[in-house]
């Protein structure tokens, strides 16, 4: 990572790349970023801060562990949990996954090694997934007596369709990189070790565009998905109205006609 770093507890770091790209790093390397109660709390806190930062136009979610993006729930922590412990933890873990999902700017996951269970759900919560050829993804929760609880049962069908998602969830199988790309579980496959650089480059290309437009486009894509066409077009129209009268729209048109790079006001 490069740039100024902000820590959220011990295991989450946010670092700026230039003026408008933020890297959100899962930084619990000794545990392969297993999602403990504390990591979940810090992830939710970091997402709240990023959501409020109007200068951030794109976020890349990365891992500081060389062998894994994130192996999912911290089963060592949960081994001694009572039912009451699970009930107390649930709001925190749900806030973490929801925090990533609801980031208002475009998000890119940079995945290498294992991205399993809750780890894959963090990636699925992003708009785009860049994976390298070491990536192994999956939702194995039913093999340990639970179900995907970080959005997996809802996000996976939206990526690959209901039947394929059912097969992957019911079998709990792990999917290696080439098949993951073929099935649409990841969007871009790169050589080993190249996931973070490629994701940051992609985020940089995204961040060159209007921040108002980016947020409105993401909102329209997310809210319109699954609606019938008429309802979806209403969502799009509402999003269009938020940008049509914005300073970004005026600047974009002026810059185009003056053949210069836009200086987005972000209003």
From TrEMBL:
Q: Identify its protein family.
A: Belongs to the enoyl-CoA hydratase/isomerase family.
Q: What is the lineage of its organism?
A: Bacteria, Bacillati, Actinomycetota, Actinomycetes, Kitasatosporales
Q: What name does the UniProt record give this protein?
A: Enoyl-CoA hydratase-related protein
Question: Which keywords, in A-to-Z order, does the entry hold?
Answer: Lipid metabolism, Lyase
Which InterPro entries does the record cross-reference, listed alphabetically?
A: ClpP/crotonase-like_dom_sf, Enoyl-CoA_hyd/isom_CS, Enoyl-CoA_hydra/iso, Enoyl-CoA_hydra_C
The answer to whether the entry has keyword Lipid metabolism is yes
- Please tell me whether the keyword Lyase is annotated for this protein: yes
Q: Which one Pfam family would you cite for this protein?
A: ECH_1
Annotated PROSITE patterns: ENOYL_COA_HYDRATASE (PS00166)
């Amino acid at each position: 990572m490069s740039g100024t770093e902000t820590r959220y507890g011990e295991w989450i770091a946010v670092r700026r790349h230039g003026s408008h790209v933020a890297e959100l790093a899962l930084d619990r390397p000794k545990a392969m970023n297993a999602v403990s109660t504390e990591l979940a709390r810090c992830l939710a806190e970091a997402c709240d801060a990023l959501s409020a930062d109007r200068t951030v136009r794109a976020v890349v979610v990365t891992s500081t562990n060389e062998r894994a993006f994130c192996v999912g729930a911290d089963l060592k922590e949960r081994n001694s949990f009572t039912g009451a412990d699970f009930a107390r933890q649930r709001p925190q873990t749900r806030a973490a996954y929801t925090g990533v999902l609801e980031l208002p700017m475009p998000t890119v996951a940079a995945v290498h090694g294992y991205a399993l269970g809750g780890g894959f759900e963090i990636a699925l919560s992003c708009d785009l997934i860049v994976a390298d050829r070491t990536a192994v993804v999956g939702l194995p929760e039913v093999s340990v007596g639970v179900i995907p609880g970080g959005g997996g049962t809802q996000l996976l069908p939206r990526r690959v369709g209901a039947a394929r998602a059912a097969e992957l969830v019911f079998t709990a199988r792990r999917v290696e990189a080439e098949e993951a790309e073929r099935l649409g579980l990841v969007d871009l496959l790169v050589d080993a070790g190249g996931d973070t650089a490629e994701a940051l480059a992609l985020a940089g290309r995204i961040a060159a565009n209007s921040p108002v437009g980016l947020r409105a486009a993401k909102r329209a894509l997310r809210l319109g998905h699954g609606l019938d066409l008429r309802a979806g077009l209403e969502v799009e129209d509402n999003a269009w109205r938020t940008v049509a009268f914005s300073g970004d729209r005026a600047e974009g048109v002026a810059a185009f006609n003056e053949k210069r790079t836009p200086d987005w006001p972000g209003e």
